[in-house]
Design brief:
The protein is mostly beta strands. The chain is about 5% helix and about 65% strand. It contains 4 helices and 43 strands. The chain has a 22-stranded antiparallel β-barrel. A hairpin with a 5-residue loop joins strand 10 and strand 11. The protein is globular, with a radius of gyration of 28 Å. The two termini are about 20 Å apart.
Length: about 800
Amino acid sequence: MKKLLPVLLLICSALGARGQQKPHTFTVKGMVVDSGTQSPLGYATVALQDAVTKASVKATLSKNDGSFVLTAPAGKNYQLAVAFVGYNSKVLPVAAADSTVDLAKIMLSASSKQLATVSVTAVKPLIRQEVDRLSYNVQADPENQVITALDMMRKVPMLSVDGSDNIKLRGSSSYKILINGKESALMANSPSDVLKAMPASNIERIEVITTPPAKYDAEGLAGIINIVTKKNTAQGYNGFAKTNYNSVYGYQVNLRVTEKQGKFGYSGFVGNNESNYVVAGFENLSSYYRPVPSSIMQTGTNANGNHRTYAGNDLSYELDSLNLISGTFNYTVTNGKLGNDQYTTMLDANNNVSQAYHTVGNGTSANHGTDIGLDYQLGFKHNKNELLTASYRYNNSGSSQFNNSVNDQTINYSLPGYRQYNDAGTKEQTAQLDYVDPLKTLTIEAGAKMILRNYFSDFNTDTLSTSSGQYINEADQTNNFTYHQDVYSLYNSYQVSLTDWVFKGGLRVERTAINADFSSVGTTLNKGYNNPVPSFSAERSLNSTSSLNFGFTQRIQRPGITQLNPFVNQSNPQYITVGNPSLTPAITNNFELSYGNFAKGSVNISTHYSFSNNTIQNVTTLGANDVTTTTFANVGEDKNLGADVNINYPLSKKWGINLNTELLQVWLKGTYNGSFYTNSGQQGHIFISSNYRTDNGFRFNLDVGFDSRYVLLQGRDNYFFNNSYSVVKELFNKELLVYMAANNPFDKFNTLDFFTKSADFQTYNANQNYYRNVNFGFLYRFGKLNGNIKKTQRGIQNDDTATSGGKN
C-alpha cells in the first residue's frame, strides 16, 4: 500500500490540476424519454461530439429520471448523439453559446432493427454505479476475449481471487454467486473451477451487490455476485467459437450462440475442458505441546486432473405484447482423478523417530449439477412496465468421492489400509411470485417465495483386515444423513427516484424449518426460526458524472452441505476433516459509504463496516495419537472495517489502466471446546491491469496482482502474487482473434502455505502449485442480428445458502 499511495496521489494531482483550468464553457442539458410511453430512460449514452470531426468531446450516462448535463468549451458547433439499447439512436445539432442550451425532452423510439451506426466513442464505461450495486462491464474490457471468467473476477471492484482460486467478496467467502439473477447448477459445487474453464467473453457484466434489496434471499454475509451472461440476441443469429490450449490446465473449447426467429428467442453456451493430470509437492510440519512434547513431519506429492463439461441455455416465447414465457436449463459435470504419495515421520521430545510410515493413495471425484426453470411474465395494458411474474425451478446437484489408501514401510505404527466412499448433494424445488409497479417516481416491488431443500450424504469406510485380506465395513464410519431445510419468505420494497436522489428500502421476512436425521446413531433434529431482514440504500447524484451512495443491510449465513456433512475425511490420517450438522445460522450487519466519479474513465472509492456474532469458522483441535481434526463451528465474533478503491483511467486513446485494491482490518474471537481464541490484523489485495492497442489490430495486456495473507481465527493463510502478459491480433475485420498469454513466466511453482496455532499445537502446511503456464488459442465470431430478444425481468434467485471454502 505504501508504494501505491504515490501513484494514487499522482493521479489525483493530475486530475486536480486539470480541474483548476477554467476555460470558457457552455452547458447543454436535457432529458431522454421513450417516445411512446414518455417514461424516462435511465443510463442512456449521451455524447457531445465535434460537428466537423465527429470526435467525442464529452460523454455521460443519463440519470434514473433520464436527465443529463454536459459542459464543453464554447465557440464552436457540436452535435449531440444519444443511444440506448433497443431504441433508434438520435443525433441533434447543438450551437455552442455563452449560456445553457436546454434540449428539453429527447424522445427515442423503440427499434426493431440494429442500432444505427452512430459513432459514439468513450461511451462504454467499465464501471456503473447504481443505488444498491456496482456493475463491471466485461464486454467493455479489452481482455475479455483472452482471459477466463475467473481471471476477470480479479478486476472487479471489491472482488479478489487468492492463490487457491477462491473468490472473495470484501475478503469473505460467505456470499452467493448467481447466474443471470438465479441460482445455477454451474455454481453448485466449485464455482472457481467452472469459471476457470469458461471464457470471459461469455459474460456481459458482473454485478457486486453489497446491499441486496429485499427481493433477494438474505443469505451471504458479504453480499451477492451476479454474473450476467451475454444475451444480446436479436432477429437473426450470432455467436462465437473459441478454442485454446493451456500448458498446465489442458485444452478448452467453448461455443456460444444467440438466435431470434419471430417470437422465439434462444441464448446458450456449451464448453468442455480437459485438465492435465499434474503432480506437485507438499509438506506438513506440526509441533505438539500436550500431553508431552512431540512433532510430526510429512512430505510427498499430490496429484489431480479432471474433465469438465458445462452448458447454459435460455429460451423465451412471446405469446403477445403482454404475455411472455421463458425457460432455462443449466448443466455441468466434472470427473476427476486424485493421487498422493507421502512419508510421515513422528519425533519424540528428543527429536528421535518414534513412528514412521509411507502412504500411497488414489481416488476419484465427480461433481454434477442440473437446474431447470420456467417463468411466466404478465404485463398490463395501462402500463407495460407493471409486471407480475410466476416462477418455478428445480435444482439437483451433488458430488461423490472415493479414497483408497495403503500404508507400508512402517516403524512402530499400525494403521490398516482403508477405502472411503461419500455421496452427497442437494435437491431443491422453488416457487416464487413477484410483482413490480414502476410509477413516475416510485417503484413498488413485492413477492413471496418457497424453497423446499433436501441435503443428503451417504458415506462409509471399509478397512483392510490384515488376517483375511478383505475389506470390512466400519459401523461407526457409516451413515445415511438427510437434512431438510425449507425456507418461506415474503418481501416488500420501495424505490423513490428524484432529480438528485434515489432511495431504496424494504423488508424481507423469512421462516426456516429444519428437519435432520442421522440414521446410524438414531439422532434427529427438528427446529425452526424466523428472521426479519431490513435493507436500505440511497444514492445522491452530485453532478452528471459523480454520485455518493450509502447502504445498510442485515444478512444471514446459513450452513451449506459442505459444512454440515458429517463425513470424516481420513485421506490424510494425521489431519482429519469433518463437517458439523449442528451448525446454526448467523446474522451480520453491514454499513457502507461509497463515492463514484465517471467523468473520464471511472473512480470508485468505498468504505464499509460489518459486525456479526456466532459466525461459522474453521476450527482445529488436537486428539489422541497427535491427530488433528478440522471442522466448522459457530464460534466467531467477526468485525471488519475496510476500504476499496477502483480506478479505470484512459491514459490515452490507445492506452488504459485499471486499479482494483482493498485494505481490511479484521477482528476475530470465539470459544470452542473450552478454549478461547482471538486474532486480528490487516489483509487485502491489489490488482493492476493495463492494455495498449495499435492501429494495425494488435492489443497488448499486462496484469499484476497481490493477495495478502488473510486473518483466520487460529492463524493465517497464504499470500499470492501473480503476473500475466498477453497479445491479441485481430484478423478478417475482427471476425477472427488469435491470442497468446504467458502467466507467471518466471517460476515453475509457487508455494501456498497456512499457519494454524492453539495452546496445544502449531501446524505449518505448504502446497506447491504449478505457477508458470502458457496459453494460446483462437476465437471466431459469426452471425448477423437486427432486433432485440425479450425475456422475463423477474425470476428465481436462490441466494440463501453459504458458499463454502476459502479465506475469512
